[in-house]
Amino acid sequence: MSLVWREQLSVGNDVIDSDHRYLIDIINRVGQSLSTRNRRELVAGLDSLSHYSQEHFAREEKIAHAAGYEQVPHLGETHQALLNQLDQVRQEVGEMVQVWSSETAERLTRLLRNWLIDHVIKEDLLMKPVLQKLSPLFDPR
User: Per-domain residue ranges for the chain?
Assistant: First the structure.
């Protein structure tokens, strides 16, 4: 089952919401490569997820700071924890034998889905009241 963007995930900023949509797309591609047991696509997808996550987290923290969100240091800590979790997944994938079980594929897919959705719901949506005071197009870069 693929992740689907829902308006309830919106933080009220088009840049951040667009990033979240793209992260959902990447996670869906990773999930597909897990289910089809395509190691090459899986590694490429995890690399893409790692790279884009780093870019997104930097953008998100910059926007949050410029918007006056007071919890930017905490947000940065949660972002680092997410990157650490993603590195663990990437390491686990690197250690897997050529063929992995459907249980392993499902567990990793679930972990990545929760990785993003839990963060958006538990952390990013806390910014929404601050961001909604600004234009949805607010981008201090």
Answer: 12-131
Both tokens assigned to 105:
């594929």
Query: Which CATH architecture group holds 12-131?
Result: Up-down Bundle (1.20)
b/e map 41-70, b = 16+ CB within 10 Å: ebeebbebbeeebeebbebbbebbeebebe
The residue among 102 and 19 whose pLDDT is bigger is 19
Question: Hey, what amino acid is at 123?
Answer: E
Distance (Å, whole) CA 89 – CA 70: 31
The structure tokens listed for 126 are 């806390």
Q: Taking the chain, what is the end-to-end CA distance rounded to the nearest angstrom? A: 35
Q: What is the pLDDT of residues 34-91, one digit of tens each?
A: 888 888 898 899 999 999 999 999 999 999 999 999 999 999 999 999 999 888 888 8
